[in-house]
Design brief:
11% strand, alpha+beta, 54% helix
Length: 125
């Protein structure tokens, strides 16, 4: 059963109309595309996948990278950006990155921080 909160959110979206919903979906598409651009630097180790029916992407870390939990700790501690270790999702050696729930300005900042953290990771692997 859906929670009461999710039912109220769905009702609010229906009452706001299709235009409001489409605006939110368009924003997610823009965020997804920007995130894919940042994660492209990891593609030599595997494709970026996800985002079809979900608001996250998965990306393989370099083969000689530290454990995914260590990478996540470093991204959070040194770059102020939070991602989920793939091992927490049944995909060790990956990171899971959500591209929703941030306003555009905050999202741009998060993208920039993640980009810097991944560039540093690749450089040191």
């Amino acid at each position: 059963c859906p929670s009461t909160l999710s039912q109220k959110v769905a009702l609010g979206a229906l009452e706001a109309g299709r235009e409001w919903v489409q605006d939110k979906v368009d924003g997610l598409v823009a965020h997804q595309n920007a995130m894919k651009d940042v994660l492209k630097q990891l593609q030599p180790w595997g494709e970026v996948w996800g985002g079809s029916g979900a608001i996250y992407l998965m990306s393989k870390l370099p083969n000689n990278a530290p454990h995914d939990t260590q990478v996540v700790d470093r991204l959070a501690g040194e770059y102020g950006v939070c991602v989920i270790p793939g091992s927490a999702c049944g995909a060790p050696g990956f990171i899971r990155v959500c591209y929703a729930n941030l306003e555009p300005v905050a999202y741009e900042e998060a993208i920039s921080r993640l980009d810097a953290g991944l560039k540093n990771l690749i450089k040191n692997c």
